[in-house]
C-alpha cells in the first residue's frame, strides 16, 4: 500500500480535501495530513491514517519562539514538522508527498533534500496523477529505489548545503542564506536542475527570488529567474516568472536586463494562445508584453531609452510575433477618402482626449475661416468613448478576431461623427486615434498627429494605419523613429507622412530686455525627467566658475513623480538645487500663465533635454530675444535628423563645456548678446510663428 503525505500550510477547503482523500483511498493509498491548519475544520471521518496539526499542544515555549521568530512561515512550518514526533513518523513512512499550497512547498522541498524515497508533487491533481502512474503496468512499484523528479533536482543542492552552517540550513531560502555566495549558487542550481515539475519549479524559484531580493542580490535574482525560465516548458509559467523580476526592477525605477526576454516570453505565450483560438488569453498576454516593453520607466522617466538607442532591435520581437502582427494587419478601407468639397465649406472634426494644449491656434483659425465648418470632440467628455479608449485588452482581442461587440460599440460612438465630417484631425497618436481605426471611415479622410511621447508608447502598435490617410509629425527625427519602429507606417498601405511644426503664437513673445538680463539663463518646463535640468546645472556651475553674475531661472512647475525612476531623479535634482538656490545662483520662478512675461528676465534660453519633438519653450525663448543654447538631444544624436537639423547648427552643443563656451562667447558684450538675440528672434518668427505654419496646415487640409 502507498502512503500519501499531504502537507498543508493553511486550512484546506473541506470539500476539495474530502474528494481528494476518497480518490487516493480508491487507488489503494493511506493518506496522512500534517501541517498548520484549524483542526476543527478537518473531517476526522474521511479515513485519515494520520491527522497532525503542528505546533501541537498550544503555545510554543519561549525557547521555540526565540528560535523561530526570525523565520518566515514556510521555514517555521518545517521546523515544527521536524520537532513533532508524530509528524516525523508520517514523513518517514511517506511514498508520495503532496504540498497542498505555496506555504507547504518549502517543507516538501526539505523532505526531498534528505530522503531519496518519496516522490514530491505540488497540488492534489499532480499527486493523483503520480499515484495513478504508479499503478500502471510497468510503473514504479518500488518507490524507495526510484527517486522522484524533485529529489533528482536537489541532489546537487543537498551536496552543497551540507557544507553550510546550521543557521543557513534552517533559513535555506531566507536573506541570510542567499546573502552567501555559496547559498545563492546552490539554490540557483537547484531551481534550474532538470526533471522538476513546472509548478513546483516556479514556486521554489519565486521563494528564492524573494530571498535574494531581500538579501540585496538583485542581479542574483535576475540570474536565478533566467536559469529557471530556461528549464520551463509551460509558456505561461515562464512568462510569469520572468515578469516577476522584470516588473520588480521596473517598480524600483530601472530598466531590467531581462526586459527583452520577459517581453518575448509573453509574445510566445500570446502566439500559442492565438494559434489555439483563445483570443482573450492571447490579448491578455499581448497586453502584458506591451505594458512591459513600453513602460514609462523604460523610456520616459529615465535619461535613456532602449527604443531610441536601437528602434529596429527593440521592436524585433513584436515583428516576429504572429499575434502582434495580427493586431496591426491592415484591413484597409472600402472607399478611398474623398477630395475636399468645392461647393461648400470643408467639414473638419478636431478630436482629442483631455489634452488640447496644441490645438488652440488651429481651432481659432479654422473656426474663423469661412471655408471650414469645424467641430471639436473631446472624447474624454463622452462616457461611451471614454470606456472604449480605456478598454485596451478588449481592443486587442478585437484586433485578434474576437470581441465583435467592441467594433459594434465603436461604430455606434464614431459613425455619426464620421458621417458628418469630410476630414477628421486626431491630435495625439494614442487611444482615440487607435479607436478611429477600428471602424471603416467610409470616404472620410483621417489625419493623425504624432508629437513625440506617443512614439514611446504601445498605442501606435495597436492601430490599423491602413485606415489613416495622413500622419503629421512635429519633426523629422520623430518621423524617423516612428517609421523605424511602428510596422503600420511601412508597406503599400501605409499612410502619407508630413512634418509640420507645432502652431505657436510667437509674435507676442518679442520683448525688450534689460541689460542685466544678459547673464540670466532660462529653462522653461522642468516637469519631466526628459528635460534633464541637472545638465543645465552643470552648465551653470561651469559659467559661475568664470563669472558669478550668471544665474539660472527655472520656469514651470516642479517635476512630476509618477514612478520611482522619476522620484530618484527629482531627489537628485533637489539635492543639487538646494545650495544653488540658497546662494542665489538659481531662481525658481515656478508655474506661470504669463510665459512671455517670465521670459523678459531670460537672456540665454537653454534646451537641455535628452529628447524632444520640437521644444516649444526653447522656440518661445528664441522669439523673446534670448540667445539659444541647445544640447544635441542624446536620444537622437548621431541620427540623420535631430536638434541640429531642427535648429540652426550654430545653436547646438554636445557637452556642458561647449555650452559654457557658447554662452561666454555670445554674452561677452551687450552688443554681441543683443545681436545674437535679434537673429534668434528673426529665425523663430520666420520659421515657427503661426502665420508661417498655418500655411502648411492649409496645404494639408485643402491640397490633395
Quick summary of this structure?
The protein has 704 residues and is α/β, with parallel strands linked by helices. Helices cover 49% and strands 12% of the residues. Helix 29 (616-623) crosses helix 32.
What can you tell me about this protein's structure?
This protein is of the alpha/beta class. 49% of the residues lie in helices and 12% in strands. The protein has 33 helices and 17 strands. The strands form three sheets. A six-stranded parallel sheet has the order 7-6-8-9-10-11, sandwiched between helices. It has a six-stranded parallel sheet with strand order 14-13-12-15-16-17, with helices on both faces. Strands 3-2-1-4-5 form a five-stranded parallel sheet, sandwiched between helices. The longest helix has 19 residues, at 564-582.
